[in-house]
């Protein structure tokens, strides 16, 4: 009889990684996916045959008994799991676990949707998957370029997963990786961010693609510029669950890094598409659809109306940014961290129509 994953004694490889910062050595143990075995000897044998090379690694890796993941995943439909990220800014207490993450288990393989904001979070995603299945992780699908969704991809890629994103994601990550890494190191702290790297997609989706997990198909759709210029949605055709990434926000204030008009058009299109449940990029982690998109639609409409009124009245951007969208403040957490920038992006776009 095969024991459930959570009850089997398994061993995973770990390695110490360190950096020097401010005259101090900071270290942590990093999980090394891809060497799991039922016994410590089997894990060590896999390490002997395989290659391990992590930045900052000190000494040879070792094998320890697999522990439980620190992330809570809920089975929102048969074989479909979702994790709700914290509704807060990245910091030492959450290690960048501030966005929603999902995975889907087919008969032959598993696909992960988004990966969190640090290697440490990605390691926890891997462990959460392994509590439920030892099937190969076929793909990690990145819904867009923002660091809180992509920085955890490293361990999943090391486990053998193909990294998939929308066309243009590789270029966007290359252009922003330095700023993203510097920013998240400052927010999370050097220890929490240790070992984190940007993983460029192995494959980019230009229009639509189907991903077969074994009697289970995911529909990947590259969206026009909206929340960002790299937005991708993932629909599990078996359950009707749609992973929308940051094309849909709940509770957490929306962040505009693309096109206001494009976002409104894309959101309207998604509202017309069938979905039993929708997983937003933040909040939820599930929303009824299409009614679950009403709050975001209202915010974007207010952003557009206030911006057009300010432009028509000749109010300069420096003044308008402080007032555009303010009527929506009570409806969103972290509103003051994001709204002024949203107003700036919207004003710049609509001013030159």
From TrEMBL:
Signal peptide: none
GO molecular function, one term: hydroxyacylglutathione hydrolase activity
UniProt domain Metallo-beta-lactamase: residue ranges: 98-282
EC number: 3.1.2.6
InterPro entries: Metallo-B-lactamas, NDM-1-like, RibonucZ/Hydroxyglut_hydro, SoxH-rel_PQQ_2
SMART domains membership: Lactamase_B
Sorted UniProt keywords: Hydrolase
Top-rank taxon: Bacteria
Family recorded in the similarity comment: Belongs to the metallo-beta-lactamase superfamily. Class-B beta-lactamase family.
Name of this chain's protein: Hydroxyacylglutathione hydrolase
Organism from which the protein derives: Albidovulum aquaemixtae
Biological classification of the source: Bacteria, Pseudomonadati, Pseudomonadota, Alphaproteobacteria, Rhodobacterales
């Amino acid at each position: 009889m095969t024991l459930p994953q959570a009850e089997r004694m398994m061993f995973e490889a770990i390695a110490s990684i360190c950096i020097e910062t401010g005259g101090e050595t900071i270290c942590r143990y990093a999980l090394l996916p891809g060497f799991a075995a039922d016994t410590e000897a089997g894990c060590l044998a896999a390490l002997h045959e395989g290659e391990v090379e992590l930045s900052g690694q000190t000494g040879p890796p070792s094998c320890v008994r697999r522990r439980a993941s620190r992330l809570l995943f809920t089975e929102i439909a048969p074989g479909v799991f979702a994790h709700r990220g914290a509704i807060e800014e990245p910091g030492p207490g959450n290690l960048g676990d501030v966005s929603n993450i999902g995975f889907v288990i087919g008969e032959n393989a598993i696909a992960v949707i988004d990966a969190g904001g640090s290697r440490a979070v990605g390691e926890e995603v891997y462990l959460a998957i392994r509590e439920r299945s030892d099937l190969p992780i076929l793909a990690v699908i990145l819904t867009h370029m923002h660091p809180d969704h992509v920085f955890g991809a490293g361990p999943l890629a090391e486990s053998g997963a193909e990294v998939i994103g929308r066309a243009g994601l590789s270029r966007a990550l290359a252009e922003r990786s330095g700023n993203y890494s510097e920013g998240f190191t400052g927010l999370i702290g050097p220890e929490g961010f240790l070992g984190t790297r940007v993983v460029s997609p192995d494959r980019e989706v230009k229009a639509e693609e189907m991903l077969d997990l074994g009697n289970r198909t995911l529909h990947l759709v590259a969206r026009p510029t909206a929340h960002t210029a790299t937005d991708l949605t993932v629909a599990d055709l078996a359950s009707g669950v749609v992973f929308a990434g940051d094309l849909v926000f709940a509770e957490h204030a929306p962040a505009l890094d693309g096109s206001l008009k494009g976002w409104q058009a894309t959101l309207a299109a998604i509202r017309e598409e069938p979905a039993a449940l929708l997983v937003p990029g933040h909040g939820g982690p599930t929303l009824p659809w299409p009614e679950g998109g009403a709050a975001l639609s209202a915010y974007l409409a207010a952003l557009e109306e206030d911006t057009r009124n300010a432009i028509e009245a000749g109010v300069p951007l420096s003044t308008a940014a402080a007032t555009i969208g303010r009527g929506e403040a009570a409806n969103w957490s972290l509103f003051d961290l994001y709204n002024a920038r949203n107003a700036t992006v919207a004003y710049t776009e609509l001013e030159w129509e």
